[in-house]
User: Fold this.
Amino acid sequence: MIKVGVIGFGYWGPNLVRNFATSDRCKMVAVADLDSKRLAAAERSYPGIRTTTNPADLFAAADIDAVAISTPVQYHFDLALAALQAGKHVLVEKPMAASAADCRRLIDEAAKRKLTLMVDHTFIYTPAVQKMRDLVQTGELGEIYYYDSVRVNLGLFQHDVNVLWDLAVHDLSIIEYVLGKVPVAVSATGISHVPGAPENIAYLTMFFEDSTIAHVNVNWLAPVKVRQTLISGSKKMVVFNELEPSEKIKVYDKGIVLNDDQEQINKLIAGYRTGDMWAPQLAGTEALAAEVRHFADCIETGTAPLTDGEMGYNVVKVLEAASKSLAQRGASVAVER
Amino acid sequence: MIKVGVIGFGYWGPNLVRNFATSDRCKMVAVADLDSKRLAAAERSYPGIRTTTNPADLFAAADIDAVAISTPVQYHFDLALAALQAGKHVLVEKPMAASAADCRRLIDEAAKRKLTLMVDHTFIYTPAVQKMRDLVQTGELGEIYYYDSVRVNLGLFQHDVNVLWDLAVHDLSIIEYVLGKVPVAVSATGISHVPGAPENIAYLTMFFEDSTIAHVNVNWLAPVKVRQTLISGSKKMVVFNELEPSEKIKVYDKGIVLNDDQEQINKLIAGYRTGDMWAPQLAGTEALAAEVRHFADCIETGTAPLTDGEMGYNVVKVLEAASKSLAQRGASVAVER
Amino acid sequence: MIKVGVIGFGYWGPNLVRNFATSDRCKMVAVADLDSKRLAAAERSYPGIRTTTNPADLFAAADIDAVAISTPVQYHFDLALAALQAGKHVLVEKPMAASAADCRRLIDEAAKRKLTLMVDHTFIYTPAVQKMRDLVQTGELGEIYYYDSVRVNLGLFQHDVNVLWDLAVHDLSIIEYVLGKVPVAVSATGISHVPGAPENIAYLTMFFEDSTIAHVNVNWLAPVKVRQTLISGSKKMVVFNELEPSEKIKVYDKGIVLNDDQEQINKLIAGYRTGDMWAPQLAGTEALAAEVRHFADCIETGTAPLTDGEMGYNVVKVLEAASKSLAQRGASVAVER
Amino acid sequence: MIKVGVIGFGYWGPNLVRNFATSDRCKMVAVADLDSKRLAAAERSYPGIRTTTNPADLFAAADIDAVAISTPVQYHFDLALAALQAGKHVLVEKPMAASAADCRRLIDEAAKRKLTLMVDHTFIYTPAVQKMRDLVQTGELGEIYYYDSVRVNLGLFQHDVNVLWDLAVHDLSIIEYVLGKVPVAVSATGISHVPGAPENIAYLTMFFEDSTIAHVNVNWLAPVKVRQTLISGSKKMVVFNELEPSEKIKVYDKGIVLNDDQEQINKLIAGYRTGDMWAPQLAGTEALAAEVRHFADCIETGTAPLTDGEMGYNVVKVLEAASKSLAQRGASVAVER
Assistant:
């Protein structure tokens, strides 16, 4: 049993605590949060766990093996470093840290101490993303042409990071995991509609070494929530609609018409989709439950997590390049090697 | 009765011919096309009209008042210029011409001769776009924050122009008409997946003098056809889904949460939309029928069309800037004044 | 070339005329309608065809081989009988006639004269219904459990027949064609909300010799148009949504849980659908064009149409039984053998 | 604080326990279930509550004020009666009991002892049903023409009751609450596809004293889960789609065309909906939380619950009449007064 402490009991922390508490591989030991009202709530729901307003109490506790950090991104580095230095395994919220340099520092620290360092890119553990990876990696989609994602939210503005760091972060991990490659250059545009606040709308294009292109549309100010991803290959295409209750993944046989046959052209103009469509049934597993199991496995076996520090580092490098491009209204910026 | 000749009887030409033929304001006189099989089809459907493989026959015909040009864009300028020089009013397919300079030349020629020059930006005449213009221009949406459009097609590749010139062209006219302003700079990215062919996928961000931002996602290689536009203002937001049979326009009351109230935040995170929604019923009018009537009105009264040469020119200027930016992987390019 | 006259140029007649006119197997010769304004419209659209306010002119015309009858149902019998007696092949709108006895009479007359008698159950010629028949007849769905259809319209009230005769008529032909069997008893309920007018809402259950059950929900007073049919078998289930532009037919792998396994039960309760789903691409053919071709084939070869008089007769027998049951608030009424 | 014991910890019981546990008006004291594994699960989730395999322990407990019964329907009567006789307030799952006579007996017992007797018709406490009641009771919909509901599930077969008792029960309570009236006669049809098992598909028409008609389509063997209700009035119509995440309630302005105006008729035939549509935002409250609060209120003030014994009794009377009609293939059966 991995004995776990969680830092941060705001929006996401309670989900972590619940999954650690119900996992048969872990034991929830303690929760830290600056807000004592939140700690009181944690105590009501989980009688018997310890609470503290001081995260250092968790690092010092001999009965804690691993720490999960679910705080604003600006605190990730200090807390994760202190945890590693105290010999704890770490699961840290995404984005992993506020800079790529900080990410690298954490990776090195964990390596030196032979501790598990995992980033909470939860999407990687969903049945839908697993299915997309299968479809791409088995070659069923053919050569990958593009990844196109729309991820827009309902008017919830963050004040510490811009919308790319809040929402595009999901796609960056999915792209690395599903396509198995990372961008070499980016172009980003966006704007803030609240004076002095970070960008609340942004568009990010990513270029790769080959002719794959990726694009992410993120927005905190949409009338309807949208979570839709297209992956198109030379053989088939996938539509992933996270909010669709019954058909999250649809796979389409593809058709391209390059010739001048007017009848074929008219058919494509008049049509609404191409080829047969197939919507595989997906397991109903909660991603976070799978992730918690995987975290326990990695700690016990010493293997690298799917969402290890390297993935967290790659994601932050792209976000840094994107922020630079954003400041130059879309000028292409190389992603640091 | 405006007596009309149509040049080009491929995909769109037959729609023009049908609408001129059934209009009580116009009379279809002649059709020109290089392909005699198409001319035979035109004769079968419209017994009594003249046909010719030589467009010059239409310019020379004394019984033709106006010419509609529905050919590939590379021929627009020469044909429109010749028509104007022959004293004919002109309706030309969009984009108006292959360069802004050509557009300007046509505008001048029409002005000199006091002829009507109209560009077939059909969307402007749809009840949905009319409704969006009303919502914006009456201030019902408040200050406009962004325009965001996805316009993707099913595998139909053009070889003469890239996907921006084929699909983004619609949004450029809608933006000018609905928002009442034109972009000052653009950033565009995209790629071609067929060696030697024009870009089949592209992303275009447009900046304005104020803090409005616009973005268009265009793609010839999608598994499903999408035609969706969001316009967000400080008071309300509109979703325009052209393919939705019964609720093309949805208007949402808006909500933004800038504070730290955790309960409000959780509600927004868990929610799927904001505020009440209202879907006004739209008239079922065919846009092209309204456009043909408007063309006849403009010719008879000498007033400028909604989609006049200036709009066509503005649209092409943005397309030229976008093509430059595309070649530089998103670098910001100013739109010529 | 089959030379055709059409009687009735109201709502559906123009579709018949258009399809006969564009078919390379038929030639449109003449149109009859009581309303001379409609005849003028027919002449405008089809220069060269003859028009008349007297249907008898069509029966008397030596240059007419076949007559299509698209009038209110009360006139079907007299017109079809006169046409047959004049030696014309007949295509008659559905329902075939106002009584089963009249249908039988027409069948006998056509048989005696070796003329083709076809009923315009257009749905039978749609790619979607053809696909459903394939799925059922090849056994892919397994033993058929039920057919369940919702067919509701927007406030368009007929005054000559009730809603069963107007809308359920489609399902009755689809059931016979797709399932390959006819009901033995019916129970129908419904009501009229306009005093003195026929029922505008009705529910029809049909029983068969085996344990298949069918139900049709028809309604002239719905806020949204619905056209959805479910066919469930012991192996798979089909959903046919006529109004869905891109996925008219969806085939679902099925799951039933008969045991007491709580986890399985919870999964079904929480789920939104069962098994994999597959949406085959359907041809974009216009049903009426296929039907017109089939009519010409049947006339030329003397074979019985898919939608022959017997199908028309079976449909009307069920409608008669349903009307009797409706008057008794659902009491079971046997369908005449 | 109302001290509560819950009998039955299968599918629904845990929801009751969770809502009693988190309510600030109630205190969860004890859970009874025949299955000790379920009791162990209850103890893990709610450390400190008592558990027992004998419901009588709850009736005998001095520290229990109220008992909630969430068992198969066949046990409702005996358990509820014993609870009332022990002086406990009762919340009983729907349907209230296996016969109307049993329901009446429970009502009398509760009245005699001045105890609160409430039936868990949870839907009544949803924001959507509350909104529909408002729309009907304020006259906004006008005179009510029909209630039409489809409520179909994914292959989960019950063995103790037929599908009407399992699913139509929801609509019967909604009809009484929203329309404010009860049916006077019913016609029901249905069939069982599993030999010896209760009907798994059924259709129920309900007649009222006026010209309102109601129909419920219930089915345990559907490929997709559907929960859709239409209520149509002389002025407006409502569509309630429980599974739609963002627009559960849509209100449509209505249109009927009774005249012969061909243009109007064509518009309705071609259209997909009538009038403007309005989708009011609904509160995100969990119905069961509101219900638990209401239960506590009723106990404390002695007022009758919205879903009191009388509603439970009326619902069971209709179910009894429906079962009789079902056995006679739809013959009309009067609902007992």
